[in-house]
Amino acid sequence: xxxxxIKNNNKxxxxxxxxxxxxxxxxxxxxxxxxxxxxxxxxxxxxYLLKTNKKYKTHKQIIDKSRELYGLKVIISNYNFGxxxxxxxxxxxxxxxxxxxxxxxxALNFYKDIMLKPNFIDNKLxxxxxxxxxxxxxxxxRNNIKNxxxxxxRLYYKNVLPNSIINNQIITDINEFExxxxxxxxxxxxxxxxKLMESYIxxxxxxxxxxxxxxxxxxxxxxxxxxxxxxxxxxxxxxxEDIEIISKETSQSNIYFTYEIKNFKKExxxxxxxxxxxxxxxxxxxxxxxxxxxxxxYSGYAITLYKQGVIYIKVDIDKNNKDKAIxxxxxxxxxxxxxxxxxxLLEFAKEKTKEIxxxxxxxxxxxxxEMEDYIFKLDFSTDEKLKLTNKLTIEDIIKQIENLEYKxxxxxxxxxxEK
Length: 419
Fold this sequence. Notes:
Cytochrome Bc1 Complex, Chain A, domain 1; 11 strands; alpha+beta; 5-stranded mixed beta sheet; 419 residues; 6-stranded mixed beta sheet; globular; 2 domains; 20% strand
């Protein structure tokens, strides 16, 4: 993928012209300071911008105009790249070459109305809409916290990675959350928006674009880029305790096994992706140990938190099978230390990586994600990753396994009385 940049650096408009897809994707990225209150402000702002602006005052008017423009989508996403918090404005539209002549301009203007012309009349928000989105946000989080799978995961981060910035973006106490939401006022949202617009990072445009359309995108979003340092990684402090949380609200239980990566390097991300593929395949150590041999797993998987230097294995089990799950962990690593088994797993992972590489080249989302990785200097390209993966040996995998330091067990025990 040959990505071009108008200003010859990642902070200008990055674009890739292709006629392989029927979609045009345009994105602008902004940075904000990561803390819990700012995260909540970002959620309120996102919902407000998607429901009203100076031209289209109501959500219905926005929906109707979107349908008129062949169902285009404006998306506002909030996510982390490690220690950096990002808000992304995104326009997804149909390829203008197959639509009427003025479609591109009309779609871009609609997008600009949402991003650049918020409904802040006399430094006030629309009271009815603002109160509505506050209520919707509180109700959504109240329902999330009632979901045992979501709550268990959030409590894992809170207890096992207590200092992680991830905790700024998860809610475990609905009363605290409701109090913060209700105390945020019009000025807080307007100030947050203004600071956000002054914290522009970069843009991308992807699809069957004409030169004059690329120029129009550049001129439409003529922000001044901030001095963004592209540093995302922060080694997390991991709790060394075994933690057990008992819930009387659910019968669902799960157990997490946490490992710290001692030789934590972002350049090794591809290697841990390979290790996760080895662990998570349907004939891999987790499935074979916990489902086939021990018969105690409902579902399970391993995840690497790349920018925090942590790996965990999560297994959904019955509350009475905690000890069996702990004992099964040794069998998983016995498999990983068996060179014959490890060779088969590595061969599978290499073939899977190759399949994903081919699939990604034909996939819109994967192609745009690769552009995003390029802009934020996050990862190797798909081709580079495939070459590095093909060079891996079982000795490389063993070396990385030896650099995993076991930290402890987190057990969420669902102890609801089913009678």
